[in-house]
Amino acid sequence: MTTCLSVRNLTTVFDTKRGEVAAVTDLSYELSAGETLGIVGESGSGKSVSAMSILGLVPRPPGRIVSGEIMLNGRDLVGLDRGELRAVRGSEVAMIFQDPMSSLNPVHRIGAQIAEGILSHRRRPSRADKAAANRRAVELLESVGVPAPEKRARQYPHQLSGGMRQRVMIAMAMSCDPKVLVADEPTTALDATIQAQIMRLLREVQGRTQVGIILITHDIGLVAQNVDRVLVMYAGRVVETGPVEEVLEHPRHPYTVGLLRSTPSKLPVNGGRRRLTPIPGLPPNPAALPPGCSFAPRCTLRGDRELCLTERPLPRAAVSDGHLSACHFVDEIVQ
After folding, report:
1. What is the distance of C-alpha 292 from the center of its chain?
2. I want to staple 97 with a disulfide (CB 3.0 to 4.6 A). Which of 40, 72, 103, 114 is the partner?
């Protein structure tokens, strides 16, 4: 498959009163056309910052990319200036944000906001361009399953339900036919039925356009049903990655095991009982990460081994070449 996005050794930091804090460290992955990559982890693990880094949306200051590259269509996005990044956003890479109500402008009509995204990539849009963009906005609303699209295009965000607003966000993101779509918690605050509809819609859009999708979430169940590969992050680093079926059925990092054991979807459904097992402790302070494995203070596998506290493990093959785990004792892990 054709690679549409390649991230190599990306490190993004924030300057604070306590010094430089790394939100994402040495992140690497590739995304192919028509593929869905899931990025999963607790709040604060670096998922959203990694996505904002791709689009150049990390606020500067205090945030900045200090190393690595983000290759999109043969260009390194890290080296682009603000004007060049504005040209890339929407046309080559687009994003669906967590909360459509805060992402949509409450004082502008839905159709106008979609059309604005289309016109922003024209230097001097004419009256004909504006009319065409308005027609395209209605077509996009219809393509994502919004009923009465002409009527909805004239409405304001508060007049739409949460599910309809999320469909509008998808239409807006796909308005310029991007090659990469970043979906950051696209089903947050939606009920299970609407969540399923939104994910089905994303798959349909991907089937038509072969867009590469990065799905950012903390929901293991959502990942299991909707992605091809999964990347598990903890304290700004990748701790495990591989094909989704292999990682979820044969996890090879204590953190991944902990996530699965604390997920309700892992409970037996036909009789039987099993208590949820929470991960002990709290995520580390990003301004004071331990010198060894960041997960070591919470790890039930570590015991009294000093290696975990003194030496940071590097990702290595766990079960196959495509399944990597950053654990010193990967061969001892059993789900």
Report:
1. 27
2. 103
Residues 210-237 pLDDT 10s:
999 999 998 888 899 999 999 999 999 9
Alpha-carbon distance 29 to 31, whole Å?
A: 7
Helix or strand or coil: residue 99? coil
- Confidence (pLDDT) at 212: 96
Two structure tokens written together for 283: 């995520």
Q: pTM to 2 decimals?
A: 0.91
Q: Which residues contact 120 (CB under 8 A, 6 or more apart)?
A: 86, 90
Do 136 and 130 form a contact (C-beta atoms < 8 A)?
Answer: no
- Tell me the two tokens of residue 249: 């059925």
Distance CA 231, CA 238 (A): 7
User: Two tokens at 154?
Assistant: 């004239």
Give residue 13's pLDDT: 96
The DSSP element (H or E) to which 224 belongs, if any, is: helix 220-226
One DSSP character per residue, 63-76 reads EEEEEEEEEETTEE
HSE-up (13 A, CA, CB side) for residue 42: 17
pLDDT in tens, 13-59: 999 988 899 999 999 999 999 999 999 999 889 999 999 999 999 99
C-beta separation of 30 from 88 below 8 A: no
- Residue 203 three-state SS: helix
